[in-house]
Amino acid sequence: MDKLGHLTTSWWISAWLFDLQTAARLPKRGSIIRSAVTAGMFMTTIEVFDGFSKGYGFSPYDMLANFAGIGSFCLQESLFNEQHFIHRYSYSETIHAQYRPQLLGNSLSERMLKNYNGQTYWVSFPVKLLIGKNSNFPPWLCLSAGHSISGFLGGDKNPESLNNMEFIYFDRIHQWKFSLDVDLSKLPFNSAFWKVFSSTFRWIKIPAPVLMFDRKRGLEFYPIRW
After folding, report:
1. What is the DSSP code (8-state) at residue 199?
2. Residue 137 CB: number of other CB atoms within 10 A?
3. Cα–Cα distance between 148 and 10 in angstroms, integer?
4. Do 194 and 79 meet the contact criterion of CB atoms below 8 Å apart?
5. Low-confidence residues of the chain: pLDDT under 70
């Protein structure tokens, strides 16, 4: 989940910087290079600081995830002249953070960053990509595949006891999700405000019906879910 977060963040920073340069009508090739280099420098700075931080340490796997996100942006922009595969994020509150708030977050803003049990990382792609560009499906309608986890109160394993709280056993499971989505940038709105808004928040998954599968509960359907 952490690596998916690095990938998604790196992709979004690259895409957002590219959109800013496109709005300024700068040449495309140079814009792609500047976006990739700037995103890489920003994410690398975080990893370097982690390397000097107690309890963290430099992670080459984080760096690989960062470059995977930047590579996804560069490859798509070079091959398709747009981002067909959009990396997205969503969050729903869970019961897990109350048991380890220092690790999983005290406030909502902290939990959105630290509580991996509530996060889902998605890849959204247009229906037209599967059916054909000449189909009648609207260009903004997407399908999404996502991954999330549940029951994780620690990294490699859950603690055997919890301070001053009754121990509750959580089964650590991976979840796979399928959903509909909307590419905000493809909606038929041409105002300057909408272009900025859709570019800035393109990485957030739109609430929609979700089909979820995991080994514990099997297949479940949610009429609306982040």
Report:
1. H
2. 15
3. 19
4. no
5. 163-167
